[in-house]
Amino acid sequence: MNLRVVASLLGRGKQLERLSDGLSLLALAYGLAPLLGAPLQPLASLLCGVLLALGVLHKYWAIRVAIDAELFAHLANSSDLTADTQALDQALFELKLKPHTTQPRAWPARSQAALGLLRRQAACLGLQLSLALATLLTLALKG
Q: 105-124 burial, b for 16+ CB within 10 Å, e for fewer?
């Protein structure tokens, strides 16, 4: 059941990703405003550039969380978790995504690591939201 709970929590990363994508698109639209003849304010432009960079970082964390969500969901339905865990570790090693270790990690440690990725994704979104608010305040004060 723990694997299902973790898979469900990791699945919420998609919602965070959608919000981040929206903020990134707004920042990009602002950056393209001169094409429509609208002037750009230097500070707001800088903040939108940082907002886009955070969007790229967020996308990285979102991809990692999505991969873990799928793996946890698959393994939650495993009839032989030990064999499937060994197969997973072997596949990760062969793809050079994991160093080969003789001692496999227990699922509670794996779960905490995966949830740590989700926390990083959420923190990145929090920074994006704060920066978007700062950008809006900058535009409002200058306008």
A: eebeebbeebeebbebbbeb
Do 20 and 128 touch, CB atoms closer than 8 A? yes
Length of the chain: 143
Task: Tell me the per-residue pLDDT of 57-85, one tens digit each, with 9 for 90 and over.
Answer: 999 999 999 999 999 999 999 999 999 99
Q: Categorize the per-residue pLDDT at 119 as very low, low, confident or very high, splitting at 50, 70 and 90.
A: very high
Count of structural domains within the chain: 1
- With a cut of 90, say whether residue 100 has pLDDT above it: no
> Coil, helix or strand for 120?
helix
Confidence of residue 143 (pLDDT cuts 50, 70, 90): low
Give the pTM: 0.86
How many whole angstroms separate alpha carbon 118 and alpha carbon 6? 10
**Which residues are within 8 A (CB) of 124 and not within 5 positions of it... i.e. 6 or more apart?**
20, 54, 57, 58, 61
Containing domain of residue 121, as a range?
2-142
Tokens of 50: 């940082």
User: What single DSSP character describes residue 102?
Assistant: S
Can you tell me the distance from the alpha carbon of 5 to that of 67, in angstroms, rounded to the nearest whole number? Answer: 15
